[in-house]
Design goal:
Blueprint (H helix, E strand, L loop, with lengths): L3 E2 L72 H16 L10 E6 L5 H12 L3 E5 L8 E2 L12 E2 H11 L2 E5 L7 H4 L3 H9 L4 E3 L6 H15 L6 E6 L9 H12 L3 E5 L9 H13 L4 E4 L2 H5 L4 E5 L10 H9 L8 H4 L6 E4 L11 H4 L6 H21 L4
Parallel strand pairs: 2-3, 2-6, 4-5, 6-7, 8-9, 8-11, 9-10, 11-12
Antiparallel strand pairs: 1-4
Helix pairs in contact: 1-13, 2-13, 3-5, 6-7, 6-13, 7-8
The chain binds phosphoric acid mono(formamide)ester (CP).
Length: about 400
């Protein structure tokens, strides 16, 4: 079976079930508490162009840092993320140098975007660089991802060529590739961005696949701004109703970044089918346990809201129902009461509220909550710009990381 993206059949092509060949373990020993999985790629060493290419030689022999991708925050320590956030605060505070003069990035979008596209394009511009947007299948050729494919179908080129060619032109490649929503066993391998990371010789940045690490940074920055610190604070991650089964990426990301930042996290969802992938549950539980905190799953709305300092809302599809969404529908329809509203927020000690956006008003969250001074979703959206500039500075210009 074929795995191609960007063609007319994007939504309909069954994802191939093969594992990604050549996947390696986590980026740095000790930075990830879960076993190596396909989405965690080791730094690429010794190939390509630019400042971050090549990392041979030991300490004291002019050792240069390995090129690093930004595929998942699981590959980064809390200390490294805190450095990025500190840079983001500095960039937000006032005028700054244009550290990316002459640098460029390709933004490869397989799915729509408002915030991600705008903030990356603008961020590169504000740092003196250039962003080029590519939409495979819509102005750029549809891409094949299967290794060894006989390419007699729709895709006109293979990710091997795409990633290598772009690496000759630009200094980084950012990719948005949502799951195909057919089989979670396939989607959880994150094969599109993994293929870009494997074949590119420049840093690859995740603009949302099965996690959304840039959104994590923005959430972290906003939490720090509003709460002062995150350690010991309680974050409620609540599933909300939405008429369609959505990506689990932001929920996975909110879970792992809150736990990594030392928060007590409650995951509220209608039933056990909506619990997130064990990879992210285990990672969050590991981060929490290491800091004396907890990750709890609840299906009881009232008790979950009580004591929350922050309510973070997101809707997602139940993993056991991937590809069988008609079977999930009755569960979803029974759970319309999970919408975030003023009555539920009143159960909290005046909690903050946020959402990654886009949000459907009065379906996922009521007007009253979104328009409240305790809502910080617009701040979070703004902070996408600042954290991504910090990330681009770190990966492309050797900034703090
Ligand atoms: N939150 C977010 O990533 O928004 P877009 O889908 O508009 O980029």
């Amino acid at each position: 079976r074929r795995c191609c993206y960007g063609g007319a059949g994007d939504r309909g092509v069954a994802a191939a079930a093969r594992r990604i060949p050549g996947s390696r373990g986590s980026a740095r020993a000790g930075t990830s508490i879960i076993p190596p999985v396909a989405h965690e790629i080791a730094p690429v060493r010794g190939a390509g162009r630019g400042r971050f290419r090549g990392c041979e030689g030991g300490a004291g022999r002019g050792r240069r840092p390995a090129m690093r991708h930004f595929l998942s925050t699981l590959d980064y320590t809390r200390a490294e993320l805190e450095l990025l956030l500190a840079t983001a605060r500095r960039l937000k505070a006032g005028p700054h140098a244009q550290t990316l003069g002459g640098k460029s990035i390709a933004l490869v979008f397989f799915n729509p975007s408002l915030r991600t596209r705008t903030s990356f394009e603008l961020g590169m511009h504000q740092l003196g660089g250039k962003a080029i947007v590519l939409e495979p299948g819509k102005g750029a050729w549809p891409i094949e991802f299967d290794e060894g494919a006989i390419m007699d179908g729709e895709p006109e080129e293979h990710v091997r060529e795409v990633a290598q060619v772009l690496s000759r032109y630009v200094d980084a490649i950012a990719v948005r590739a949502f799951p195909k929503f057919q089989r979670w066993e396939d989607d959880r391998e994150d094969r599109v961005i993994q293929a870009f990371a494997r074949h590119a010789s420049v840093p690859v940045i995740n603009m949302e696949t099965i996690t959304h690490p840039c959104q994590e940074l923005a959430l972290a920055m906003t939490l720090q701004e509003r709460l002062g610190g995150t350690d010991g604070k309680k974050l409620l991650l609540t599933w909300t109703y939405h008429p369609k089964p959505l990506n689990t990426a932001v929920a996975n990301s909110a879970l792992i970044i809150a736990a990594k930042l030392g928060m007590d996290v409650t995951l509220l969802c209608p039933s056990p089918e909506y619990v997130l992938d064990p990879r992210y549950m285990a990672a969050a539980q590991g981060f929490a346990a290491a800091q004396g905190r907890s990750v709890t799953v609840s299906h009881d709305i009232a008790s979950a809201y009580r004591g929350a300092d922050v309510v973070y809302a997101k809707s997602w599809g139940a993993l056991p129902y991937f590809g069988r969404w008609a079977d999930e529908r009755p569960l979803r329809e029974r759970s319309r009461g999970f919408m975030v509203d003023a009555e539920k927020m009143a159960l909290t000690p005046n909690a903050l509220f946020s959402h990654c956006l886009p949000v459907r008003r009065n379906v996922k969250v009521s007007d009253e909550v979104l328009d409240s001074p305790r809502a910080m979703h617009i701040d979070e959206a703004e902070n996408r710009l600042h954290v991504q500039k910090a990330l681009l500075d770190a990966l492309l210009a050797g900034g703090t990381l």
